[in-house]
Amino acid sequence: MNESMKSGIRHSNPIRNTWTRDEITALYNKPLMDLIFEAALVHRAWHDGSEVQMSTLLSVKTGGCPEDCSYCPQAARYQTDVKGTPLVNVAEIVSSAMEAKEAGSSRFCMGAAWREVKDNVHFDRIVDAVKQVNALGMEVCCTLGMLSKDQADRLKEAGLHSYNHNLDTSPEYYDKVIGTRTYQDRLNTLDHVREAGLNVCCGGIVGMGEESKDRVGLLHTLATLPQHPESVPINTLVAVKGTPLQNQEKLPFWEMLRTIAVARLVMPGSMVRLSAGRTDLSVAEQALCFMAGANSIFTGDKLLTTPNPEFQSDAAMFALLGLTPRPAHKPQPHLDQVPA
Ligand code: SF4
Question: How far apart are the CA of 116 and the centre of ligand 1, in A?
Answer without folding.
Answer: 10
